[in-house]
Structures are given as C-alpha cells and as structure tokens.
Specification:
The complex is a heterodimer.
Chain A lengths: L6 H17 L2 H8 L9 H13 L17 H14 L6 H14 L2 H13 L4 E4 L15 E5 L2 E9 L9 E7 L10 E7 L5 E7 L5 E14 L3 E2 L5 H9 L10 H19 L7 H29 L7 H24 L8 H6 L13 H8 L9 H13 L2
Parallel strand pairs in A: 1-4
Antiparallel strand pairs in A: 2-3, 3-7, 4-5, 5-8, 6-7
Helix pairs in contact in A: 1-4, 2-3, 4-8, 5-6, 8-10, 9-10, 10-12, 10-13
Chain B lengths: L6 H17 L2 H8 L4 H13 L17 H13 L6 H13 L4 H11 L5 E4 L12 E5 L6 E11 L6 E8 L5 E7 L5 E7 L5 E12 L4 E3 L3 H36 L1 E2 L2 E2 L4 H27 L4 H30 L9 H16 L2 H16 L1
The chains are: A alpha+beta, B alpha+beta.
C-alpha cells in the first residue's frame, strides 16, 4: 500500500476543494451544522443533492455508465472526507447508496432506465421497508406478504423504522413471497410508489422529540410484478449484496469528522459570547476520539487499497467499520453535549417550537438532539451485537 | 443484597414505593407533565397522602426529624417513579439551608414547605463548575432598609412555577457570599422559560434591581451553607440515580424476556445475559456508594465533600452505563419517545449535565485529596 498520496490524488483533492469552496455556500454549511439526524433533510438536503447532481458527483459509487463520475475507491474516500472537512450535509443513503446499486446489479433494463436517472436527479426519493415489529435483527422472520394475483403482487403487512418515509415517493421493500423451505429463501425485493392505494403511515417520535422514522401499513396494496427486482425469492441475496463494503459510503469516519468540526465551531461561538466550555478533561477525551478516528480512517484506507489492487475484502470489513464508526460517533456526540454543561439539558426541540431564543452557542443547540438520535446508531443497520457475531463467525468459523 | 436500613426506613421505602407506583405510572406522568399545575399537585399529594415533606426538618418546626438515610430511601423511590422534582430542590436543597438559618423568615418558609404552599427554586450554582452559571450581586439600598439584587442564574430548575427563589449572591460591600429568600413574583425578576429533556421546567433568570427587605437575607456567610446544600443535593441525586437504574434494569429484563428473535427470547442470548449482569453489578455498587454518601453527610465538610465527589463520580458512570445499555437492549423501540426507558435515559443524561459530569466530580475528589494533604 502506498503510504503517501500520489500527485494525481492531490490534484483530485484540490479540484474537490475548489468545487466545495464555491458551491457549498455559507447558508448550506450553516443549515448542515443544525442537522440532528443520521441524514440531512429539508431544503439543505435538496439543494446539496441538486448541486452535486449538476456537477455529476451525486453518485460517486455508481459506474460511469449509469451516471457515476468514474472515481476509484480512493478518490471516493477522498471526496467524502473533503466534504466532511468542509461541513457538507450528509445526503440520505436510501436512494443513491441502496436502491441505485441494487438496480444496477439486479435490475432489468427497463427498471434501470426508468429509475436510475430519477434517483440521480432527485425526482425519486426512496425509503427502505425492511424491519417489522417482529423482525428486527432477525430480518429473515419478516411476514409482510406479497401474494401473486395475475400480473400483480398484493401486499399485506407492516414495516417499521422506515427512515424518511414521510418524505419518500417510492419504497423498496423485502416481502415474503413463499412460506415453503427456509424462511430466508421465501423473500423477494420489490418496489412500490408511496401513493399506491392501501399504504398508510404513522409517525414514530424519537427520544429527541423529532420525527425521523415511521410505521407503514400495507392493506391490499397492489403492485405490478414488473416492480420486483431480481428473481422471486432472491430478496435476501440482494439485501446481503447491499451490506458489502463496496456498497457503503466512502468514508466511515465522515460523521465523526462532522461532529467534531461543528463542535469546534460551537466552541468558537461560545468564546465570542464569553462562555468558556472546555477544561482539561475535555482535552484528553477529545484527543482520545481523534486518535480513534485516525485508527478508523487508516483502517478504511487499508481496505480501500486492497479493493484497488483487486483483492477481495470479505464480509468482515463492512461490519468492522460500522461497529467502530457508530460507537465512535456516539462518543463524539456525547463529548459535544458535555461541553454545554447545564444548557445541554435544555429541550431545544420543544423550545424551538415555542419560538424562543436561547443563550448558548448556536450550533450547540442541536448537540442534545444529535446525541439522543445517535443512540440508534449502534442499533440500526445491524446492531453492534450482530456486527460482533458476524466478525466472530468470520474469524472463528462456524 | 439488602441495604443497611432499619425497620422504620424499610417501612418508609415500601410505603413511598407502593404509593408512587400506584399513583404515578409512566403514562400518568407523561400526560401530566405538560400541565403547568403538575409540580404543585405533586407536592400537595406528597404532603396529604405521604406526609414526607417534613422529612428532614426538626420536630419543633413541624418536621419528622429524619436523617440523610431516610432522605436516601425517599429519593430512591422518587427516582424510580421519575418524580424527584420539585421535592429535590424544595425539601432537600432549600430545606438543608433553611434548617440552619434561625430566623422567622426561614422558619415560616419551612412551614410552607411542609404544607406544600411553598415550592422553591435554587438560584446558585449546583453543577460544581466555577463561575458562569450564577452571578447575582446584592447591593444595600440607599435608605439602608433591604437590598437590591441584580444578575443572572441560568437553567434554574423549577423557576417557571416556584413560589420562592433561594438566591446566592455576592455582596457588593465586602465580596462575601450571601443567601436571600425572595418571592418569585417580586418586581424585576424576568424569566425565559423552557423545558428540559427530562420533562421538568426550568428558566434563565434575570434579576434587575429586585428590591428585597432586610429579612430576606438569610445569611451573609453563605459559602459553607451552600456547600452543605450542594452536598446534600448530590447525595439525594445519588439515591435518585439508583432508583432510576433499578427501574431501567427491571424494564430491560422484562423486555428481553418477552421479545423473541431467532426463535428464542433475547434473555437467552449469553451476550445480553452478561450485559444485564454487568448492569446489576453497577447498580449494586452504586447503591453502596449512595449509602456511603448518605452516612458521610453528617461528617466534617471536607469528608462530606470528598464523599459526594466520589459518589457522584462513581454513580454517574454507573448511571450512564446502565442507561445506555437499557436503551441498547431494547433495540429500536428503546430509542423512541414511547417507552419509559427513553424517559429514564433522558433523566440520567440531564442529571449529568445539571449536577456535574463524573469527570467534574473526579476533579473535585482530587482537589479534596490535595486540600487534605495540605
């Protein structure tokens, strides 16, 4: 592995920075700093998506043939880390990182030509219907059923924890198309417009008081069979494909970098208000997080480097990165909140509803919600316990 | 493991615990919290049904003459029901100060606490941090009769609904620390009210030349009394935290018993069993520290301060471990606003932020060791 960057990579990095300097406006940076969830939402999300789309950079992991910029994995990682360093909003992953790659790998030509351009442009905004009340870690036990009726599937059941379903106009879901044989062999991957008759939704409020996820109900929801991706009963294979490292975002530590950056900016704001928020225990905790971030980042570099030389990276890499990054993110959000002292205990979400100005650094107003929302990071996308099981099975063998 | 309680303390614990679980379950509390009258109703019920508002006060003032271990028992029960305020600020913090002030105003305040007609908010720093959170100055009025108070106190718990404020000040004349007992409706008091993440109400207080009579001054040598009240508050918080943790573990055990994945209850997975075992160990160690600090409250100020530093540090760490793992073991549903586990989690986090992090208390412990050595 090359220890240092090549001249080409530095030229690429300079190009990305120049683009960010011009196109990631101060308004966008400010709005991004006030985002509390796993993904950005609202106006800043749409503008940033549009800006990247115009540049041709909105889908860095897609093949050029389908609208990707043709970057290597190392360039992708470089792009993501420059975005994080600049404080760019994190775009939701469901459309570009999940649905898109699935269609590229398993979709028909008709599905690809219909859906991929609309994902790129942002016209379609996807949500993911996987978990059910009785099927969380044990996803294969899902029960939402799709029964064949002529040229259609009729879907009945429920999905839960659907992030941003309240913004989405399309949903991709895992549904049960067979009850014979092993549970995981009776699942299919299908697509449905969110305005299909029979789909209803209730919001689920998080500990932070915010609305990020939902429960969806499917009552005789009819979709054409042509909305299935891949073969019938192959859905879990498709879901597993999405878990592989290559499909993930370019920089596992991106979120942590952002939290630390916004913390630094809040500390500057605090100083200008005459508030001193940090002490020696802050410094040593901050140092430990930065040190662990270095370990995470360099691990990702090693993995990416293996990919570039055509080696297989195995199942463990994605699990290792997810496990490490999610817990580091939690430590970083906890540290940020701790700097606020008593002000950290204020329910800013309620206060913003009451339209109040609160004392304290502006960016600090979201540290509490970001910390509370962050508790879900070690749970969704495969809990930390599940990730450890995957890693253990890999190193020990069954 | 049974705590080292005497028989009357066991009776107190059971009576308060039973009353609270009968009357203040999760749903009732959530529904009531948005009601502005909720804190007053709570204290009134405690006065009428439980008679615990007089717990720490001497009998000649109408109190029950109970000690710190009794307070510990009550606070643990209040913690388990998530109803520690306004009892904590009014009976424990303010009560500790008023008990040691031998003036008519102080005695009347105690009577009002006992019959639930006074709710007191604390306007001096309680998080163990130096400076910033409270900076009220007191100047003598030019006619010599009384004082003007001016300054700010941030995140004043109970400030929106309190009948009185206990205000810590710096006397302009000589720089000494003083304590005033001020009616909450005195002219010149401004509030920015808000909610805290644990559902309690608080405010940023601004005092602008608030005129108070001479007898509002409780003491002009307040520093030792404030230190004593802060230590009493810490001991109470330690007990409250143990109550919260017990509830978090109980809910987690119950949940993992009935939630099944991969064909069996979560409670049959060894990783989760060990996690719950670790939570149990933390809770027992925390309960021991809560007992230790209650017993040390009546010792010398240095010993007391060191004990509360140790207890807050150790119980703070235990609380966060238990709370985080309770949420984690509930899975996604633990991150929602729906279950009790999220509310208990948020109170643990709020305690950390309002009363000082474990790191802060480790520093206090170090300081008291250094002082002791010198």
């Amino acid at each position: 592995m090359d220890k240092g960057p090549t001249r080409d990579l530095e030229a690429f990095r300079a190009e990305v920075r120049a683009f960010l300097d011009v196109n990631l406006t101060p308004e966008m940076r400010d709005a991004a700093a006030l985002q509390t969830g796993v993904y950005s939402e609202g106006g800043v999300c749409r503008s940033w998506h549009h800006t990247l789309y115009q540049k041709g950079w909105v889908a860095p992991s897609w093949p050029e043939k389908y609208g990707g910029p043709g970057w290597t994995p190392i360039q992708r990682m470089c792009f993501e880390s420059e975005c994080a360093a600049a404080g760019a909003p994190i775009l939701p992953g469901m459309s570009i990182l999940m649905c898109g790659p699935v269609l590229i790998r398993f979709g028909t030509e008709e599905q690809k030509s219909f859906f991929l351009p609309r994902i790129l442009s942002g016209e379609h905004f996807w949500c993911q219907g996987y978990s059910e009340p009785q099927a969380g870690s044990d996803l294969a036990s899902l029960r939402c059923a799709a029964v064949r009726d002529g040229d259609d599937y009729v879907i009945n059941g429920t999905k839960i924890w659907t992030t941003h379903a309240h913004y989405a106009n399309w949903i991709f879901m895992l549904v049960r198309t067979s009850t014979e044989g092993r549970r995981q062999d009776g699942i299919s991957f299908v697509l449905a417009p969110m305005d299909t008759p029979g789909i209803t939704m209730t919001p689920i409020i998080s500990m932070s008081g915010e609305h990020e996820v939902n429960q969806l109900f499917f009552d005789d929801v009819r979709i054409p069979v042509t909305n299935r991706v891949g073969n019938e009963n192959e859905g879990m294979k498709i879901a597993k494909y999405l878990l592989e490292f290559e499909r993930g975002g370019g920089d596992a530590g991106m979120q942590v970098t952002l939290v630390l950056k916004w913390l630094d900016e809040a500390l500057v704001q605090a100083e200008s208000q005459g508030l001193k928020l940090t002490d020696s225990s802050y410094l040593s905790k901050r140092a430990e997080i930065e040190i662990d971030l270095l370990a995470l980042t360099w691990t990702q570099r090693r993995i990416v480097s293996e990919l570039e030389t055509g080696q297989s990276v195995g199942d463990v890499s994605a699990s290792l990165l997810k496990l490490t990054a999610s817990e580091l993110y939690q430590r970083a959000t906890e540290l940020a909140l701790a700097t606020l002292g008593p002000y950290g205990a204020v329910d800013q979400h309620v206060a913003s509803g009451e339209d109040q100005d609160l004392v304290g650094p502006r960016y600090g107003a979201v540290f509490g919600a970001r910390y509370l929302n962050g508790r879900a990071q070690s749970i969704f996308g495969g809990s930390s316990e599940i990730q450890r099981t995957i890693i253990a099975r890999s190193i020990i063998g069954r | 493991m049974k705590p080292m309680l005497n028989e009357s303390q066991c009776i107190l614990r059971d009576a308060v615990g039973r009353y609270l679980s009968d009357n203040y379950d999760h749903q009732r509390r959530r529904a009531a919290q948005s009601d502005r009258e909720w804190p007053q109703q709570l204290l009134k019920a405690f006065a009428e049904d439980l008679g615990i508002l007089g717990l720490p006060f001497p009998p000649e003032l109408g109190g029950l003459d109970c000690g710190p271990v009794d307070t510990m028992v009550v606070m643990e029960a209040l913690g388990s029901a998530l109803v520690a305020e306004p009892y904590l600020s009014t009976v424990v913090t303010a009560g500790t100060i008023l008990k040691d002030v031998d003036t008519a105003v102080a005695h009347n305040a105690i009577s009002a606490i006992i019959d639930a007609t006074a709710i007191i908010a604390i306007a001096f720093s309680q998080d163990g941090a130096a400076g910033a959170s409270s900076n009220v100055k007191a100047t003598t009025r030019s006619n010599g009769d009384g004082y003007f108070l001016s300054g700010n106190n941030i995140v004043t718990r109970g400030g929106p609904y309190a009948t009185h404020l206990l205000v810590g000040t710096c006397m302009e004349a000589d720089g000494r620390c003083a304590l005033f007992y001020v009616p909450a409706d005195a002219p010149g008091i401004m509030r920015v009210n808000y909610s805290l993440i644990d559902g309690n109400r608080a405010c940023d207080l601004a005092l602008d030349k608030v005129a108070v009579p001479a007898d509002a001054l409780l003491t002009s040598d307040a520093a030792p009394l404030i230190a004593k009240a802060n230590d009493a508050t810490r001991a109470a918080i330690c007990a409250e935290s143990v109550g919260i943790m017990r509830r978090l573990l109980a809910d987690t055990v119950e949940y993992t018993r009935q939630r099944t994945q991969f064909g069996k209850p979560l409670s049959e997975f060894q990783v989760l069993q060990h996690r719950m075992a670790a939570m149990h160990v933390e809770i027992e160690l925390a309960a021991s520290m809560a007992l230790m600090v209650a017993l040390e409250l009546e010792s010398t100020p240095q010993q007391r301060s060191k004990a509360t530093a140790a207890a807050m540090a150790r119980i703070g760490r235990a609380g966060r471990f238990v709370a985080e793992n309770a949420v984690q073991l509930h899975g996604a549903i633990g991150t929602t606003d729906e279950l009790a586990v999220g509310q208990y989690f948020k109170r643990i986090i709020a305690i950390d932020l309002l009363f000082g992090s474990p790191d802060r208390h480790v520093s206090r412990y170090v300081e008291s060791c250094i002082e002791h050595a010198n």
